[in-house]
Design goal:
By secondary structure, the chain is an alpha/beta fold. The protein has one domain: 3-Layer(aba) Sandwich (Rossmann fold), CATH 3.40.50. The chain has six helices and 13 strands.
């Protein structure tokens, strides 16, 4: 069972629908008992970093999430804001993140001819072998909507990068913890391939 964590800031229906399409047994929940009983967790998220952490901390789920990821070491996938909050914090605000990854989020610098936020389809480049991207084809493109990027302190945590004025981390992985800055649930067949890997992995 994959549990999509409902902490008040996610586009839950599109994530749920894509996981179902990938063949996953999936539910949406805001209950600690469901989180701890899950085989895998998906942390969605859209919006402001501080608001996301405020909602998560007020949800009563923090202890269950920490135990799931850090003690039980079961697979977790964060998407967009759900990936950014895996780190320590963000220039977008002052709140502390979950701190599971040594990473902070930084503002995408202004570049002549390019818009911020980075919005739309983009290619990515794999940096290290990671099962999450095993289904990626040479023509793969993914959908992005963000103004901040993940800056990992340890390069070994970087799974893939993308280009938008600068090269930035668009997918990370440390052990059982994975994150994508792009939205697999909005990335059609390329995103479906990622969801299938996550759903089917042991």
């Amino acid at each position: 069972m994959i549990v999509i964590v409902n902490y008040g800031v996610g586009n839950l229906s599109s994530v749920h629908n894509m996981l179902r399409k990938a063949g996953a047994d999936v539910m949406v929940s805001d209950q600690p008992s469901d989180i701890l009983a899950a085989d895998k967790l998906l942390l969605p998220g859209v919006g402001h970093f501080d608001y996301g952490m405020k909602m998560l901390n007020e949800s009563g789920l923090r202890d269950a999430l920490d135990r799931f990821a850090l003690e039980l070491k079961k697979p977790v996938l964060g998407i967009c804001l759900g990936a950014q909050i895996l780190g320590k914090g963000s220039e977008e605000g002052t709140a502390s993140g979950l701190g599971w990854i040594d990473m902070v989020c930084k503002k995408i610098p202004a570049t002549e001819g390019l818009r911020v936020p980075h919005m739309g389809w983009n290619k990515i480049q794999r940096v290290k072998p990671t099962p999450l991207l095993d289904g990626m084809t040479p023509d793969a493109r993914y959908y992005f909507v963000h103004s901040y990027y993940m800056n990992c302190a340890d390069n070994d945590d970087i799974a893939a990068t993308a280009q938008h004025g600068i090269s930035f981390t668009c997918a990370l992985q440390r052990g059982n913890i994975h994150g994508t800055q792009f939205h697999p649930e909005k990335s059609l067949r390329h995103g479906l391939a990622i969801m299938k890997v996550f759903a089917e992995a042991a």
